[in-house]
Amino acid sequence: MSDFSDISVVVQGPVQSFQDREQEPGITQKCLESVRQHLPGSTLILSTWPGQELAGLDYDRLVISEDPGSNVRFFGRDGAPHRFNNNRQIVSTREGLREVTTKYAVKLRSDNYLTGNNFVALQREYPKRTSTHCFLKERVVVSNVFTRQYAKGFRVPFHLSDFFYFGLTEDLRTLWDLDLFEDAQDPIHDNEGALYKSYPPDCTQMFWIKALQKFDTSIHVNELLDRSASRLEQSDLCFANNLVIASPADLGLGLCQKFLGTARISRTKGQCAQWQHWEWQEIYRRYCDPDFPKAPASVKANLFLKRLVHVHPVKLETIVKLYKNRRSSESGGIK
């Protein structure tokens, strides 16, 4: 395929640096140039903030949104507010997608870039779906980077990456046309120790769940490690029916330097905690297409051994930490 005129790419986020969010020098220019190279004929939309240095950047449309600011989801055990850029992510993605007029769209962070266009073919490779938990019109292709199967040593549900999305424009709008997070107000009532038995839900869990709740209000997590068998199965069904999860190499996605080298997500420990493409294929086979080939036993064994060394031992650390947190809360609340 040499013409991608039915695709728009929304490059969202700061161009170089934005308040507390530093960027790799020149990364947004690299991002935009990569879209021109690997998706010729596509429409390129840059969705960013006021006051950005735009000179020399190549795009078709520019979307400037007012900064909603960082949001406080909860207060820490010490009473300090925990700030996130959830609302910034929602606004820059949502407003960019509203400008799309093509059938398909890509959501791409301004600090990542394309190395190919394999994701276009991947989106069409898995046609079968079940009659339940099939919420989107077509599958959306996502990156496995930060799409975690394990966190703190335990299986976790609904932990979907926010890095990269490709699919029908209407499906991406469904996923990102979200209400903004309201700020926590009370350091006592909205305290991490009072709200959660283990850890707060991850931001990426919250984005995905807020979208899924448009179709099924029963879908939720109470905390990061909300991992009952029924919750994990519900999560797997949503993944199997609505997504294709693949590695950056499989997609044609390049990551900026802060996610490479010695970064936690690039180490063996981080990588083997993520969903692997063949693992997603396994749940696709289980729920959608029983005739889909099984993964080789050697591949399964290799990942099992890596997790045995790098993932499962973390469970004990987590159990000890949660015990200490519980004792601290019982003895004095906020420290």
UniProtKB/TrEMBL annotation:
InterPro entries: WavE. It holds the Pfam family WavE. This is Lipopolysaccharide synthesis protein WavE. It comes from Marinobacter nauticus (Marinobacter hydrocarbonoclasticus).
